[in-house]
Amino acid sequence: MNKVYQVGIIGLGVVGERLLKQFVDHPRYEVVGYCEPNQTRLQEINEKYGEVTTYPSHQELLKNDEIDLVYLAVPPKFHHEIALNIIAHNKHILCEKPLANNINEAKEMYDSAENAGVVHAMNFPLPYQEAYFKMEQLLDEKALGELQRIEFNMHFPTWPRAWQQNSWIATREQGGFIREIGPHYLHLISRLIGQPSYIASHVDYPLDERASELGVMARLLVNEQIPFLFNGLSEIGQKEHMSLKILGEKAVLELRNWRVLYLRDRENDQSKVELTHLESLNLLDELAKKLDGEDAHLVSFEEGYQVQKVLEAILASK
């Protein structure tokens, strides 16, 4: 009989709740403890998913020797300290993105997890979706021909979004769409094509020095030869829209709004790519495989560290 892994969760915001629900519904996990400072939010979660042991601090939660895995879903500036404590207690860790709040923190988290021999993974949903595997297939088949450019554009009518209101998501210190959305697509390109490297960027900020960015234009390079344009803008008159285009000499592939895939070539206008009956994976299934000692399709802290290096270079621009 497969082991049921005991899970502790630190942080129960909107994103944390999404994965909490998956843990509760998954037969390989049992959620046994929460740490969440917002007592109103904690009560809401207990009423919705059933009461479990709650802890006043992450240090107290980590004293529970029965917990095998900790899901860390607090704001980015708290990742480093708490993650190192989780690792020091020899517990496996699943962390939200970005990995940390700066490069040095990210590197220390990665090194510590590797040295401790614990399973370390990040919650990047895109590499588990059908669209990812179709994109991988088309690129492997050279369906686009020689790649000429990659373009990523993210547009928001306002930031933060209405459903994402909290105390940090709009701050320059640890919020903004570069940190919140950018890592998903930087990582996706690193998996599909190669690791992006930084060339140049310009970030527009409001007058309020505490507020996160309004826009970004960045030039990156993939595999030392493919230009990668990374752009974003908020406070504009349109609905939220995300577009990742991979432009080849034969065809152009576009991932639109996270899940919808389009393909076009010189003779045909864009056509939606059928994704039914294609391979997809589940993060928690893969995590259980890794915990069992098997090979698994996971995003490691090492990958998170590589993304962090590009993020911080973009944000360092004035």
Shape descriptor reads: globular
Over all CA atoms, what is the radius of gyration?
Answer: 20 Å
The named CATH superfamily of the largest domain: Dihydrodipicolinate Reductase, domain 2
Mean pLDDT: 96
Q: Can you list the strand order of the major beta sheet?
A: 8-9-10-7-11-12-13-14
Topology order in helix (H) and strand (E) letters: EHEHEHEHEHEHEHHEEEEEEEHH
Give the N-to-C terminal Cα separation.
56 Å
- What share of residues are in beta strands? 25-35%
What is the strand tally? Answer: 14
Instruction: Report the uncertain regions.
Output: none
Largest sheet: 8 strands, mixed
Query: How many domains would you count in the coordinates?
Result: 2
Name of the CATH architecture of the largest domain: 2-Layer Sandwich
- Count of individual helical segments: 10
Helix content: 25-40%
| Structural class assignment | alpha/beta
Fill in the CATH topology of the largest domain: Dihydrodipicolinate Reductase, domain 2
| CATH level 1 name of the largest domain | Alpha Beta
Domain Gfo/Idh/MocA-like oxidoreductase N-terminal: 6-123
Pfam families: GFO_IDH_MocA, GFO_IDH_MocA_C
Family: Belongs to the Gfo/Idh/MocA family.
InterPro entries: Gfo/Idh/MocA-like_OxRdtase_C (IPR004104), Gfo/Idh/MocA-like_OxRdtase_N (IPR000683), Gfo/Idh/MocA_oxidrdct_glycsds (IPR050463), NAD(P)-bd_dom_sf (IPR036291)
